[in-house]
Amino acid sequence: MKQVGLYFGTFNPIHIGHLVIANHMVEFSNLDEVWFVITPQSPFKAKQTLLDDHHRYQMVYEAVQDYPKLKPSKIEFNLPQPNYTVNTLVHLDEQFGKEYQFSLIMGEDNLKSFHKWKNYGTILENHSIYVYPRISESTLEHQFKDHPKIHRVNAPIMEISSTFIRKSHKEGKSIRALLPEAVWKYMDEMNFYR
Ligand SMILES: Nc1ncnc2c1ncn2[C@@H]1O[C@H](COP(=O)(O)OP(=O)(O)OP(=O)(O)O)[C@@H](O)[C@H]1O
Ligand SMILES: O=C(O)c1ccc[n+]([C@@H]2O[C@H](COP(=O)([O-])O)[C@@H](O)[C@H]2O)c1
Questions:
Q1: Which residue ranges of the chain lie beneath pLDDT 50?
Q2: How confident is the model over 67-80, as pLDDT tens digits?
Q3: Is the CB of 158 under 6 A from ligand 1?
């Protein structure tokens, strides 16, 4: 059975931090592929600065097209919003469960709020989680510290966020180096986040 890491995110826009994380996971763990699942509406995020789903998908598509082990996924586009990950996982297991075994990939900031996710216990019962280090406020719940299903990877910290990219771009700063080249071109041509 193929091992797939599901990298859920808003990707508004996808940046090189996301790519480094996916690449690290697929090269240094037992995962065969990473699927970037573009989330229409995260339960914890306001919709204000959010670009249309299809534009965010297109940027992910452009970013990964030269990397055969990385794939974009629209699976959440037709699911009810806000998008609770537990529901998407049920859907994916029903559709692909015979071919693929799914794990989750997330930054450490998301692990720190994981106890607030819908049915997080069910997610952990059925799936492993790979966590990439990230500086963030708040502390990690004790229950997640040495959990057998949670694998914390030892990798360099990158202080890049989509929020920083949107804000800097709006202020007229060049953020070209923080984006895959094709994403930068698309964003620039389409005049996003101005
Ligand atoms: N620099 C980073 N280091 C570690 N994890 C990251 C980093 N950037 C994003 N992630 C993780 O990638 C996933 C998707 O992130 P998301 O699309 O929300 O990006 P973001 O940069 O955090 O966006 P925003 O600034 O808009 O909140 C989350 O699990 C998040 O923790
Ligand atoms: O299922 C939940 O309760 C849940 C709560 C918060 C976030 N998530 C998912 O985690 C992913 C990253 O979220 P965010 O807010 O950091 O972009 C995104 O796909 C969200 O749908 C999921």
A1: none
A2: 999 999 999 999 99
A3: yes
> Do the beta carbons of residue 36 and residue 60 sit within 8 Å?
yes
10 Å Cβ neighbour count for 128?
Answer: 20
- φ, ψ dihedrals at 138, nearest 5°: 70, 160
Cα–Cα distance for residue pair 178/85, rounded to 1 Å: 27
Give pTM, 2 decimals.
0.98
Superfamily of domain 2-160: HUPs (3.40.50.620)
At 114 the pLDDT is 98
Backbone phi, psi, residue 73, to 5°: -135, 135
User: What pLDDT is stored for residue 48 in this prediction?
Assistant: 74
ipTM over 0.90: yes
Q: Which atom of ligand 1 is nearest to the CA of 161?
A: 21
**Ligand 2, atom nearest to 109 Cα:** 16
Q: How far is CA 53 from CA 103, 189, 191, in A?
A: 23, 17, 16
Strands 150-152 and 100-107: what pairing?
Answer: unpaired
Residue 42 in contact with ligand 1 by CB distance below 6 A? no
